[in-house]
Amino acid sequence: MRKELIIGLFVGLIVLQIALPVSMIAKRESTLKNGIAFRFKTAPVDPYDAFRGRYVALRVEVNKINRPEGMDLKYGQKVFAQLFVNEKGYAQISQIATQKPRGSDYLIATVGYSSTNEVSLNLPIDRYYMEEKAAPRAEQIYRDHSRRDKQDAYVIVRIKDGFAVIEGLYVGDQRIEDILSRKN
């Protein structure tokens, strides 16, 4: 009986180790296939951090919003950022809520800081992963197109049930991968 229990637990552990990564991949792929596409304008980013690995560090412009009256917010608190598309075709945050909104598109975020007038949000779209050798060149191209005097970089993000997946990074209306392939 004890041997059967150990074998059963071992098999259960194996199934869990396979099911967890498969479910993470399935959620990401489902979002890319069925999620609603939003275009987020990016903003200048701090210099590359060698300790973060091989990706392009992003910062989107819409990470701040006026603080809603009477809403008590704490650092790291989960919030729902409700989205709309502005006249230029970029995603904007219309408001934040502590409860999941119904009938509107939203992105799950966390509170970065909260003052009496403004709330800064940590959005889950701050890294664009790339092939290891291409990422440093892509980071430089992205930085060149994210300066204060030249801001024509943006990301296309698919969002489904608050979960976000970056579909592509664009600079000057071209995918970063296309720019890199022409510069080889």
Question: What can you see in these coordinates?
Answer:
The protein has 184 residues and is an alpha+beta fold. It has 2 domains: 1-34; 36-182, no CATH class. Helices cover 27% and strands 36% of the residues. It has helices spanning 2-34, 135-144, 176-182, and strands at residues 36-41, 55-57, 64-66, 78-85, 91-97, 106-114, 118-122, 127-129, 146-147, 150-151, 153-160, 163-171, 174-175. It has a 5-stranded antiparallel beta sheet, with no helix packed on it. Strand 4 and strand 5 form a beta hairpin. The termini are far apart. The mean pLDDT is 83.
Keywords:
5-stranded antiparallel beta sheet; 27% helix; alpha+beta
- Sheet with the most strands: spatial strand order: 3-7-6-4-5
- Overall helicity: 25-40%
The poorly predicted ranges are: none
Count of domain modules: 2
Question: Helices and strands, in N-to-C order?
Answer: HEEEEEEEEHEEEEEH
Largest sheet: 5 strands, antiparallel
Average pLDDT rating? 83
- Count of beta strands: 13
